[in-house]
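name: query_chain
kind: protein
chains: 1
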Amino acid sequence: MKSIYYPTHALFRLKSSIFILQKQNKNVMNDSVELVIKSSTGEIKKYPIHFPNVGDYYRIECLKQELSRSNYGGLVTSKTQNAYDALDMIDIEATLTVLAPKLIEDMKVTRFSQLGIKDYLIIRKAYLESVHPFIVEVRNLLKPE
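structure:
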């Protein structure tokens, strides 16, 4: 497996270190993954995340701009941990809003932004374990070789 190095994007920065991802063989890429959320009470909910189509992909990107109030680029160039944390929150909300609308419906708040930090951290952990690597694979497909 070939390692790919991603320098500064927020979702690749974990605990201020650079996250190295393994590029998987494109022939074994899954068409879907399962997001498993285990609540603090022990309740487990599973949400299928399907391979995004073109409309899903640009809807996610447009939603990132909307959620950041058109300041997404400014947050990316900010280079502060708070900005990286905000980018993670925005990226996760945009992706799950488009690819896992049932999760958004099941939340006890009306908007993702109303989540408590502890609840957000549960979702983020599950997202980073299953959805994020899947989305990285999608991005890698779009990169010219």
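note: The chain has a mean pLDDT of 82.
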